[in-house]
Amino acid sequence: QTNSPRDRILRERAAYVIPGGMWGHQRAAALPSGYPQYFSSGKGARVTDVDGREYIDFMCAWGPVILGHLHPTVEAAVAQQSAQGVCLNGPTEHAVTLAERLVAMVTHADWALFQKNGSDAMTTCVTVARAETGRRKVLVAHGAYHGAVPWCSPSLVGVTSEDRAHLLHFTFNDTASLAQAVEAAGEDLAAIVVSAFRHDLGVPQEMPSAAFAKAARAACDYAGAALIVDDVRAGFRLNLAGSWQTHGVAADLSAFSKAIANGHALAAVTGNDRFREAASRVFVTGSFWYSGAQMAAAIATLDELSRIDGPAVMQRAGQRLRDGLDAQAAHYGFELRQSGPPAMPLVQFNGDDATATLGDAFCTEALRRGVYLHHRHNMFLGTAHTDAEIDSALDATEGAFAALAKTRPLPSGEAA
Ligand code: PMP
């Protein structure tokens, strides 16, 4: 792409010094054509790539940004702590204050521990569950993502079968398959791990049914196992009290990360009193797990989300986007399948093929018009998505649908 010269040069340089050109889920090679790999800045609901093109951002750094890029209150809290020391010989007082905030905010929480990434937090949950129960088996849903470490990585490259020896699977929202997995684990059941909702890559999202949520809780109670809710992706976007609290179900252990500090690297595990003693015994740590600035950012982020009722703001913005896209799609002869909560939408085209050719083409057209979407992973709304930003995005997607309609015969045979 000649209109992305800086991005192209960086990719060429990276090819020599970064294996595969880029690692992990943010690698642009896996995105629709024309997507930039490198960015230079973000402000509010917008990001700018290294070639100076600005986009209305519906990925929010894949979740971490919830109050908009560079939220002033959060950045002030970070600057204040950073000016006093970045990494010290122990945590700052923010650690205690943040733990107090989480205990007050998250219904099931009697305590909190901090890490850096969601994978750290999920691994800590599993370690604490095994320590408390003295058991080994952990149940996870087929296709669910819980992190990039051997016990749960979606890829088996470089992973041994021993790493996964005590993992059993069930189907999300299928109580019979859950019961089967519980039975297979028998007396060795340490934990059932569930996502806040089903947000697996490339398939329609599903909220947990009330029956499934209650069955998971009941199975853990009966077996004396831990119910672990992986709230890394959804935490603080849907319900500040914890995502499964919406369904009247309290977790024993929850993992949070992504949005907790509006883009600053932090994760948290919360737990109830039953798991407190085990949580004090397990050896979980990291060089950067104590640094204060990110915890200061988290306190500012959670305070702001409570003050403005962030989840309600994002739900409203997401619904405005959803309704707008549905109306445009219908006008141009397409039918969308929009799933999941409006604050974390997945937008798919009915009748699309397995590689999401249509979704892919739509995203490319939207990107050309200044809107950054994703066609296979859920997107993320933030509180910086004002009505005006949503409406600007919808102006662009209108053009994207029109362009798509020109290259694809309409199901009805009519001209758009
Ligand atoms: N659990 C869920 C549900 C996630 O979405 C993610 C990250 N996408 C993780 C765990 C792992 O978090 P991290 O990438 O911060 O290690």
Automatic annotation (TrEMBL):
InterPro entries: Aminotrans_3, PyrdxlP-dep_Trfase, PyrdxlP-dep_Trfase_major, PyrdxlP-dep_Trfase_small
Keywords of the record: Pyridoxal phosphate
Keyword Ubl conjugation attached: no
Pfam family, one: Aminotran_3
A GO MF label: pyridoxal phosphate binding
Family recorded in the similarity comment: Belongs to the class-III pyridoxal-phosphate-dependent aminotransferase family.
Protein name: Glutamate-1-semialdehyde 2,1-aminomutase
